[in-house]
Amino acid sequence: MTTLTKVAQGQPAELSIYPKRKLSKINNNIYGGFTEHMGRCIYGGIYDPDNSNKDLIDEHGFRKDVIKEMKELNVPVVRYPGGNFCATYHWLDGVGPREKRPRRPELAWLGVESNQIGTDEFMKWCELVGTEPYLCLNMGTGTLDEALAWVEYCNSTLDTYYANMRRRNGREKPYGVKYWALGNEVYGPWQVEQNTKEDYAKKAYQWAKALKLLDPSLTLILCGEIGTSHWDHHVLKECLKVETHALGGSDTAALMDMHSIHQYTTSNDPIKNAFAPRSAERAIEVTASLIDLARIQNGVSPKVPRQMICFDEWNVWDPQRAVGEKGAEERYTLSDALAVAIWLNVFVRQSRYVGMANIAQSVNVISPLMTTKEGLVKQTTWWPLLLFSKYMRGWTIATHTSSPCYEGTTEPKWLQNAGETPWLDVSATVDDDGSVNLVVVNVNPDESFQLKLDGMEGDDRSVDAYTVTANSWNAVNTADKEEVSLEHQSHSKLKEYTFPKMSITMLRWRTG
Description:
Blueprint: E1 2-6, E2 14-25, E3 33-34, H1 64-73, E4 77-80, E5 104-106, E6 111-113, H2 119-129, E7 132-136, H3 144-155, H4 161-168, E8 179-181, H5 197-214, E9 219-223, H6 230-239, E10 258-265, H7 270-275, H8 278-297, E11 308-316, H9 334-349, E12 354-359, E13 369-371, E14 376-378, H10 382-391, E15 395-403, E16 424-430, E17 435-442, E18 449-454, E19 462-469, E20 487-492, E21 496-499, E22 503-510
Parallel strand pairs: 1-15, 2-18, 3-4, 4-7, 7-8, 8-9, 9-10, 10-11, 11-12
Antiparallel strand pairs: 2-15, 5-6, 13-14, 15-16, 16-17, 17-22, 18-21, 19-20, 19-22
Helix pairs in contact: 3-4, 3-5, 5-6, 6-8, 9-10
Function: Alpha-L-arabinofuranosidase involved in the degradation of arabinoxylan, a major component of plant hemicellulose. Acts only on small linear 1,5-alpha-linked L-arabinofuranosyl oligosaccharides.
Keywords: Carbohydrate metabolism, Glycosidase, Hydrolase
Domain Alpha-L-arabinofuranosidase C-terminal: 312-503
């Protein structure tokens, strides 16, 4: 939580950090990834067996450089296989001998799916990366029987048909997949088998009962919309109900565990683009209130854990600039990097409510990480993602900023009426070893801010400073040039700091 005192332009800005005021525990899953059968995310992204540079490929056909960078991010969970793709995906097409797997028309992105990567291959990749899988069920052309069979295949220890199929396919031990989504964006007209909110709520509730009868350990995630819609209100009210039959009579467990929301931000104006993710903060707050309202209306016991928000698609994306059916390969600028940093600041500030977040996507498709036949390109947005994922863990702590504010129009337009928009966007954490991590995003295109730093007591304190910036909003990284990178400096006796214009800065120091 960051509180704000608005000051006039030209007045001195200040920043106070309170390391002892731990507000909420950060769930590491907010640094989750997402891989979808779309563009070059799977084929040519995580899996590239035909690449002529064999040094890049392991014995499974996976890109070793992608695995290395995913490990560097310490990605805790990865969503799969979609996205819109899952609405016509039948998981049985992707298991068993590869030479027998069918090629299918793919309707989400108008391609052909070879099914050379399926459940077992994705699980193997997750093991190599050191991450947990998060699977999205087909609630478009799929059936409840098919969903139950997939859970059985992945998780069952019994002597039953689909568990034995897994064993025949070479995997004796269950995968133990914890996270399962009840469909993806089924509210949208772009979705195969679009649902009304009434039809979806009824279907999701019945599916959830059956799934938890089969495996009570599952974490089930409702398909929400943007967090502020009639869809979210209705689905939460109808699905966050007291349910004991499917939970073995327990009054301390929940049928639904999380509620997903999606949002992408963009603007052709670099300042509006950078500030746009602040709209996600309001969406999280509204969704959290709708969850509370549903629990109150339905008489849910306080003993049932409060449902968290799963922000399982987020990023900067202009679908007209990076068309989905053409692979959605964005070239990100410094402005986009600042936007991603503000996205991540939002998740840290709202850690009380957010149980998972998944950047869409992890490789090639609107991604900070791009593959070439020779190696990798780390786009501008890679650097804030790396800083946050490595260091912004532990607890969200209180900060207070005195800052001038942006007074112009916003994208979305309603954002300018939803609260102040300070030029300095801030979050801070403290981890278990007492390291304090402060991120300040200065969106101002013309002015650097020299701030007094209250809360960094100790004359001899060593402070690491990491900075991401460039000379232009339009700076990009490509295979031929890297205009945006990470700079590191060490300081001592730091009482104030100058945050450059158009920059992301992380300060890191030990308490005590």
